[in-house]
Amino acid sequence: QQGQTLAPAPVAPSADPALASALIADHAAAIATARRVVDHSQDPDLRRLAQTTLDTRTTELAELRAWQAGR
Questions:
Q1: DSSP 10-58
Q2: pLDDT digits (tens, 9 = 90+) for 16-65
Q3: Distance CA 29, CA 70 (A)
Q4: Cα separation of 29 and 25, whole Å?
């Protein structure tokens, strides 16, 4: 009807494992890159940012894997 907004269709629950797998791959790649920056960069600000990324993504990766294991 005119003036009514339709709610978006929900993502099927079966898509969740694939979405989690994509996030896991993204986080793993970010962790690997951040490690290279921490190990090889000469810039202290860049190394600090990479360390923050490493710390945050490592925690998030563990949470994603725990979610995935509980499925």
A1: PPPGGGHHHHHHHHHHHHHHHHHHHHHHHHH---HHHHHHHHHHHHHHH
A2: 999 999 999 999 999 999 999 999 999 999 999 999 999 999 999 999 99
A3: 23
A4: 6
Question: Taking Cα atoms as reference points, which of 25, 29, 6 lies closest to residue 17?
Answer: 25
Kindly state the tokens that stand for 51: 């360390």
Contact 30, 53 (CB under 8 A): yes
CB atoms within 10 A of CB 34: 21
Of 28, 37, 19, give the one whose Cα is nearest residue 57. Answer: 28
3-class DSSP state for residue 1?
Answer: coil
Is-contact 55 35, C-beta < 8 A?
no
pTM reported for the whole predicted model: 0.77
